């Protein structure tokens, strides 16, 4: 019944139908490092030491231990009875008895309980995989923010040297009577502005460095080497294929499918409450021989023979309103699981669509910056420098050209980092490496 309901859910939202539970053991999350050994080492360290990842793993281990507990019969009951006044029988007084009984749930109850525990364990396993994938994403985002900041620090350092050169040129022009002291002051103020920007960049770098260390459970002040983005990987953006990968590999979707699987078993288990449970047992009674005068003089056949008995019992499920409520609860939980599955599928579609559009937009901006804005800004500054050296233009025009080039270079560095961060977001959206190593 629950499989049919899953198929209906999948059909209603135009996604592939649920075909079975996810693997029982979390695999190492599939991710790409684009050949960057520093990033690979940071991710490996974070996956090994992050407290949230370790806690999710331990929760999964604990849930696995629930499986044999759920599928085991209740402990047998042992009872001992001592008669204060022995019951007289034909063959002698009965003084004590011992009985052992075993409760037996209705057929299939233990298997359903085991399947529920196994599904819950698999859900914990997917939570573990989700935490690992999320840590990989967070490491990458912080790492590429560091890459931008390191690039920005290098650019502002070069800009500082350029402004100092302009200041020396303005000093020389002023000493020769071709310039004004105001030009020197303006250039000095611009140098101070760049130095202030560098201090702000250094502060931000300290924050992202600390964030990376926290993710890896390292000392918060542990140094992270300078980061440099290598060759930018080209990617193909087949959104339909990416959504298919997400429905297959994203831990949240797998977890939602497993929740439906568990809901089906819970529904069957709730319906079994209408059936009785059984109890079987054996008993032994200690009987002493006849001690009265007739018994001693003429013992009856089997005098003092112990008694043995078998018992069989069954519960009577008369409180059907409670059973009905249990079925309604299980049905509501199954419906909630189906809604969670819809939400997970929609989440994949949204994340793939949004991130793919972001990647395409950044690609277009990168081409614009690299092919037009950066060459134009460099040419404009070069022409302004020549005009300033010849005394044709003033320091304000020079500073405008310098600031425009600085903004373009910083904007290009930001786009390069954002592109790599978008790749990490797509990787998290589909639950597998993006782009694949070597692709």
Can you put this structure into words, describing what you see?
The chain has 10 helices and 4 strands. It has about 450 residues and is of the alpha+beta class. The protein has a single domain, classed as Up-down Bundle (Outer membrane efflux proteins (OEP)). Strands 1-2-3-4 form a 4-stranded antiparallel beta sheet, with no helix packed on it. The protein is rod-shaped. The chain starts with a helix and ends in a 9-residue tail after the last helix. The model is unreliable at about 1-25 (pLDDT under 50).
Task: Please give a quick description of this structure.
The protein is of the alpha+beta class.
The beta-strand count equals 4
**Which structural class should the secondary elements be placed in?**
alpha+beta
> Could you state the CATH homologous superfamily?
Outer membrane efflux proteins (OEP)
Mean pLDDT, to the nearest integer, reads: 87
Beginning-to-end CA distance, first to last residue:
43 Å
Please report which band the strand proportion falls in: under 5%, 5-15%, 15-25%, 25-35%, 35-45% or over 45%.
5-15%
Low-confidence stretches: 1-27
Largest sheet: 4 strands, antiparallel
Under CATH, the topology can be stated as Outer membrane efflux proteins (OEP)
Number of helical segments with 4 or more residues:
10
Number of domains: 1
Key words describing this protein structure:
disordered N terminus; rod-shaped; 439 residues; alpha+beta; 10% strand; Outer membrane efflux proteins (OEP); 4-stranded antiparallel beta sheet
């Amino acid at each position: 019944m629950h499989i049919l309901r899953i198929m209906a859910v999948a059909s209603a939202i135009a996604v592939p139908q649920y075909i079975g539970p996810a693997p029982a053991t979390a695999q190492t999350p599939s991710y790409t490092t684009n050949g960057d050994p520093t990033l690979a080492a940071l991710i490996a360290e974070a996956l090994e030491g992050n407290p949230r990842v370790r806690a999710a793993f331990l929760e999964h281990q604990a849930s696995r231990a629930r499986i044999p507990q759920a599928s085991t019969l209740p402990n047998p009951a042992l009872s001992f009875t001592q008669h204060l006044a022995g019951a007289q029988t034909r063959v002698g007084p009965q003084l004590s008895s011992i009985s052992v009984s075993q409760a037996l749930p209705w057929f299939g109850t233990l298997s359903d309980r085991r399947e529920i525990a196994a599904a819950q364990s698999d859900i914990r396993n997917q939570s573990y995989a989700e935490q690992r994938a999320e840590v990989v994403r967070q490491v990458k985002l912080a790492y590429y923010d560091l890459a931008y900041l390191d690039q920005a620090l290098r650019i502002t350092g070069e800009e500082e040297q350029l402004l100092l050169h302009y200041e020396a040129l303005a000093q020389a022009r002023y000493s020769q009577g071709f310039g004004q002291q105001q030009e020197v002051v303006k250039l000095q103020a611009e140098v101070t502005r760049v130095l202030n920007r560098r201090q702000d960049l250094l502060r931000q770098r300290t924050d992202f460095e600390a964030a990376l260390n926290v993710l890896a459970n390292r000392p918060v002040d542990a140094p992270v080497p300078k980061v440099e983005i290598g060759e930018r990987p080209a990617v193909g953006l087949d959104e339909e294929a990416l959504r298919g990968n997400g429905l297959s590999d994203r831990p949240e979707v797998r977890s939602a499918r497993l929740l439906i699987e568990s809901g089906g078993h819970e529904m069957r288990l709730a319906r079994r409450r209408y059936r009785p449970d059984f109890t079987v047992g054996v008993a032994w009674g200690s009987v002493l021989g006849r001690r009265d005068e007739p018994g001693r003089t003429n013992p009856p056949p089997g005098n003092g023979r112990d008694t043995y008995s078998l018992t069989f019992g069954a519960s009577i499920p008369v409180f059907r309103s409670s059973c009905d409520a249990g079925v309604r609860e299980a049905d509501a939980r199954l419906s909630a699981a189906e809604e969670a599955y819809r939400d997970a599928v929609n989440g994949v579609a949204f994340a793939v669509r949004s991130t793919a559009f972001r990647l395409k937009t950044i690609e277009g901006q990168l081409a614009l910056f690299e092919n037009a804005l950066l060459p134009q800004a460099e040419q404009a500054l070069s022409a302004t420098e020549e005009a300033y050296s010849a005394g044709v233009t003033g320091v304000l025009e020079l500073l405008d050209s310098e600031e425009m080039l600085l903004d373009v270079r910083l904007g290009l560095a930001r786009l390069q980092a954002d592109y790599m961060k978008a790749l990490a977001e797509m990787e998290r959206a589909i639950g597998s490496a993006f782009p694949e190593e070597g692709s």
